[in-house]
Amino acid sequence: MKCPICGLQNAEGVKFCERCLSALDIFMVNPEEEGIYCNQGHWNPIGAKFCSICGEPIKIEPILLSPYVLVEKDSGKIISLPLNEEEITKVIVGRKSTEFKPDVDLSELTLSATVSRRHAMLIIDPESKSISIQDLGSTNGTYLNGERLEPNKIYKVNPGDVISFSKKLHLTFEVKKQ
Amino acid sequence: MGLIRSKEDIVLSYRWENSTIAQNLPFNEQKFLLIKMRPINIPPQPRVNLILVLDKSSSMEGEPLENLKKAVKEIVQILDEEDRISIVLFDSEARTIVSNSPTSQRKEIVSRIEDIFPLGGTCIDEGIATGIEESEKLQSESIIKWMILLTDGKNEHGNNDRCLDLARIAKRNGLSITTLGLGRKWDPRLLEQIADISGGKMYYVENPKELKDRFISEFRSIKNIAYKDLSLKVKLEKFARLSDISPAFIITPQIKKIEPLWDGEQWIIEGGNLEREKEKLILLQMFISAPESSYINKVLEYIIEYRTIFGEKLESSAHNVVLEVTESYVSQFDEEVRDALQKVSLYVQQELAEKLIDEGKPLEALTVLQTMVQTAIKFEDGDLKNLIEENIQKVKADGTLPDELRIKTKYETKMVDE
Prior knowledge:
Number of domains of chain A: 2
Structural class of chain A: mainly beta
Distance between the termini of chain B: 36 Å
Largest sheet of chain A: 6 strands, antiparallel
CATH topology of the largest domain in chain B: Rossmann fold
Low-confidence stretches of chain A: 28-32
Order of helices and strands of chain A: EEEEEEEEEEEEE
Number of helices of chain A: 0
Helix content of chain B: 25-40%
Number of helices of chain B: 10
Number of domains of chain B: 3
Oligomer: heterodimer
Strand content of chain B: 25-35%
CATH class of the largest domain in chain B: Alpha Beta
Radius of gyration of chain B: 23 Å
């Protein structure tokens, strides 16, 4: 078997690549075993974020709680905004800490260090269904299409607008059809 | 060969990944053998001829140099009466400020250390060359020669190939070189090769404040050498052969790939030194053709040849390594061998990932790094997992790896125990 790691063509019966000693048996899986497949069709254990064979990210479409999402510009990561007209009309966007968990947690993103714990609030108007944003006095500021928002003031957000949590972390606001 | 049979100074044992082999397999069976050595009959502490080769280039100015001075002064204080010390400074040239001096000259040595002034570029080979000259000033079989080389930079005014040639000369002269890389701008591949070739170790010193502890612990570990110049001699039965590609690795204290030498009858695998109370592990990869029958099968015979700290050459008695032959395949995997195997695979994969990056193949490198994450998870080593994930993010973002990450990752995958 050809080693998927270093490319060495190994002899029959070899369980660890003779050159790089990578365990080859992890690539020889029982197809009935539960798992997920990458875009190239390689099998991976459940929970894998990257394909262990081709290295491509494994994209799992998140289960959307609402049609409102933020999409990270660099990675394409989708963050669902659990807003709806009946119950949840306001969500706090921020970075989780041991004491505090925001409604929308950005701490998984690469540049999350620039996000305040309570960074901004997104609000839905139950009647017009329009969305607006309010900066909650964050350290690095909130930007709408590049313009810095005045703290605690409410601004309307339209689909396609870029919301930046600090000058570096850019997310696009989108409304997905369900 | 004029060898004296030892009174068993070293306890030897071995483990297979699977101590059985099935009869009549259609292919050669891949086997891993872990040979373990631990010293008993601890001799007195050796005399040490210590050669410090120190980078004083302009980048050392301030905190690095102040901490280095403190570290070296501390070493001078803890030297034993019988020990010797030389201090060589280098920038783009090298100069000896303390030449093969006894501890009776402590005061003079300390004042020389105080006078070190940072200036100039970096030529590591000049430092090593001058250090080797110093090491030759005292000729004695009963003293351990050891160089500690410290640098915070790349070999910008020197030649890396010459460094490696000098490391080979050092090795022939019985001089080992431990390399210390300070900060985040040195060349981990070069310092690793110098250490591996000469039989020393490589360390990463992240913060100048750690210099003192690192110098002291390295000096103590030299002082703790119980037996030196170990070689493992292996006579294989006809049906067994060592892997041609990755035959042997030293596992502790740092992972190192070994190329065994064939002397016409047996394989010789150099194992370095044995320290007090520390176990040395050597992993061998071999292929065995399936035996037709028989209950227990001797696969190989090995002995350990070594020197005492007084230079006397000794050898252990011969030990047989056997496998149990079974009718059909028996599933088992020794945890200790698996552990060693996974550590080696992380080390080899890290080298491979770096090579792929340098060849401009970031996607292939990502595949390797992702496998490393899986292994780190199996080890429950969260720090290593995070470190490799940091590698992945960098490769994805920039297609390459910064020096600092290369240094950290190489070091973390090479280091096994402290």
